[in-house]
Amino acid sequence: MFRHVLPAALWPIIAVGTLGIGQAVVWASALSYLGVGTPPPAPEWGAMLADGRTYLQTAPWMSTFPGLAIVVLATAVTVLGRALRRRGDAR
């Protein structure tokens, strides 16, 4: 089992795990944006987006940078997961 099954199953498991991380970041950000996430003193990107919503006219960077961080992290982890999946398929 450790010689044949585990090496064949390892890369797909890692790929699916990394794809799930990007999705979890987006879901956690969405929940904290709606106010359902962790309590207010905790720094979360979704809560930062919600707080910056009132200052969009005077300070747009308050919502721009947390939003970009969410997009960049979710995209990077998804690209990593797809690359790992391709590597696992090549084996």
Structural commentary:
Helix content is about 75%, strand content about 0%. It has about 90 residues and is mostly helical. It has one domain. The longest helix has 30 residues, at about 60-90. The radius of gyration is 18 Å and the shape is elongated.
Set down the secondary structure blueprint:
Layout: H1 5-33, H2 45-52, H3 61-90
Helix pairs in contact: 1-2, 1-3, 2-3
Provide a concise account of the structure shown.
The protein has three helices and no strands. The chain is mostly helical. The model has no long low-confidence stretch (mean pLDDT 85).
Number of domain modules? 1
Structural class: mainly alpha
What is the typical, i.e. mean, pLDDT?
85
Low-confidence stretches: none
Helix content: over 70%
Largest sheet properties: none
From the alpha carbons, calculate the radius of gyration and give it in angstroms.
18 Å
Descriptive terms for the model:
mainly alpha, 91 residues, 3 helices
